[in-house]
């Protein structure tokens, strides 16, 4: 069964999963940031007046008249002293020196780009960068720097980007960034910072992006971000923050993205984000929030994405999100919300994706989702509804996917999915559904995929699928079905994919499969089938049959002829790419047609029986 699940995901999953609204915009964690980086040399050293540094490669750009010097990975144990004075860009990354003495680059008054990353640097003299008046971009990331003297960047007042991430810095001198008013990117991520001087960033009036992720910050002083009026992106992911006070983020009118995920935030002061008029993306997931006040998100009028997953939120108050009229994605998965009252999602008129997975929701009611006029995807996986409240999705006319798998459902009732004429995908797998009331799906004219795998269905009648005239995929594996009356599938004139594996099917009628003019895929694995119908539609291009009790007597002859004539439709085995984390493993899926009777061929694959066995048929 699990191998089949792989097959299913492989063949079907791609189109199904990707089509969902799944707005991903995860950060490129600690990748080097955008900065103007000249291209590596195509050919070494054109002859110019100044000789190149002895063990380096020089490249003179004839258009820009710029000299680039490449000294990466040369095993330098000290900074070379013969770098040409006219150098514009210097690569000194991944060498072996542990320190930069005073005046190391003194002559390089034209230098604009300096790359010192991925080396063994521990200390940098306060005067190391003296004379670099033109320097705009400096890479010091991925070294072992513990701290930098306060005067380090005093002579480099034109710095625009500075990367200090992935070092061992445990403190920042309060004067370190003084006067750097041209800086627009500062990356201090993945160091050991537990506190920052309150005035550390006060001169960085032009800063657009500040990365402080992966440190040990437990507290943010009220003044810390006060002068950063141009800041667009602030990353505080993975620190030790516990409390967000009301006055920390107030004066960041241009901030568009704020990352606070993976901290230990227990409380957020009411109105803490009230001045953030431009905020579009806000990640508060993986914290310890248990309560959201009804004015927690006040004033976030531009917010598009709000992530609150993996907290301990136990209830939502009406109106909590009322200011978020442009929100498109709200993620509340992996919390402890048990009940949803009315009006909790009030105001979210532009919401497209609502993720409430893994909350063990037990209660919702008609009206809970009212007003979500643009909602396209609702994820309720891992809830525990005994039965779905009547008309709970009423009015969600734009809804195209409902995820209700693993939700303790015991039945589907006539009122559950009323009015959802635009719904395309309905996921009901891994519930305990034994009853589907008559015409429960009658209004789902647009439904393309219905997943009812792993439930307790023991019968299907002509009313069960009534109305599903556009259904393409019907997944019924892992139920208790013994028979499938031909008329049960009559409404499904569009069906191309039918999975009945893992049931208790004893027979399949000729009429049943001929009823479906578009059927291409039929899975009958692991049932109790003895015979197949005398003929199989020519339209079929995959037929799965292993795990049954095939009776290989004369009645099986047409079936054997078909299998031998169309081995690609009934392949003996297929190699599939496994799904999931180890995507590159091949999985073999068998499709044996093992005869159980008569005795003379018992244990043989039908394909391997000799023709003489059928000579008197
Ligand atoms: C640097 O040292 C390593 C190890 O001794 C050696 O393999 C490598 O070739 C050296 N690289 C250069 C450019 O000398
Ligand atoms: C949330 O927690 C669950 C369960 O511990 C985990 O599987 C999931 O990856 C987490 N999600 C995020 C975004 O951290
Ligand atoms: C599933 O439903 C059956 C009745 O149809 C019930 O006996 C059983 O306890 C239910 N199982 C679960 C896990 O809810
Ligand atoms: C099965 O049904 C089709 C369509 O009604 C018919 O053409 C075919 O002869 C039938 N085959 C058998 C063996 O009854
Ligand atoms: C199916 O057949 C292959 C050989 O083709 C055999 O190795 C495998 O054990 C068989 N599987 C089952 C379930 O009979």
TrEMBL record:
Molecular functions per Gene Ontology: insulin-like growth factor binding
Any matching Pfam family: LRR_1
Keywords from the named record: Cell adhesion, Disulfide bond, Glycoprotein, Leucine-rich repeat, Repeat, Secreted, Signal
Source organism superkingdom: Eukaryota
GO biological process, one term: cell adhesion
SUBUNIT field: Forms a ternary complex with IGF1 and IGFBP3.
Annotated Gene Ontology cellular component terms: extracellular matrix; insulin-like growth factor ternary complex
InterPro entries with a match to the protein in the record: Dev_Immune_Receptor, Leu-rich_rpt, Leu-rich_rpt_typical-subtyp, LRR_dom_sf, LRRNT
Transmembrane domains' residue ranges: none
Native species: Triplophysa rosa
Annotated ranges, domain LRRNT: 51-89
Signal peptide, first to last residue: 1-19
Region (Disordered), start-end ranges: 23-53
Name recorded for this polypeptide: Insulin-like growth factor-binding protein complex acid labile subunit
Cell location: Secreted, Extracellular space
